[in-house]
Amino acid sequence: MTAPAQTAPAAGTKTQWKLDPTHTTVEFSAKHLMITTVKGRITDIEGTITIDEKNSRNSSVEATLKTASIDTRTDQRDDHLRSGDFLNVEKYPEIKFRSTSIDGDRKAFKLTGELTIRDVTRPITLDVEFEGQTKDPWGGERVGFSAKGKIDRRDFGLTWNQVLEAGGVAVGNEIKIGIEVEAVKVE
Prior knowledge:
This protein is mainly β. The longest helix has 8 residues.
């Protein structure tokens, strides 16, 4: 397999990109019973990226994740995560992210923004890598990024837990986030 061609818009132009939800993944992981890492994802995602080729600090990202689409491959756990103990999807149907700053170059940068979960907004910084840009078989342009970061779920009011008889807790407080983004240029 050959690497895709990487092209860039003319310097000084701003381009708009729409997240492709079928090729974008937002995953999370947390410790369970202090010994195992459980992973999941949120599958209903939409968002836009604005890229300023002249000054990357003027670029921005906005994304919305539908909380009801949480999937850990276990119905009982997913139902619990959708309940009032965690995401409370009836009352808070969306998680939102809006970038506030970008620091670094096009290939690797820190993306800082406001993450809102359960109507609580806190800053988060993601380490982002540019994965490339190419034309797709249908004549469109696509761009890819990978990002990772972490949050303390308690900062967002996600405090449910259970103390274990042997010590420790059922659910870890640190949530690791991994994101793979593919976005399509908006003409």
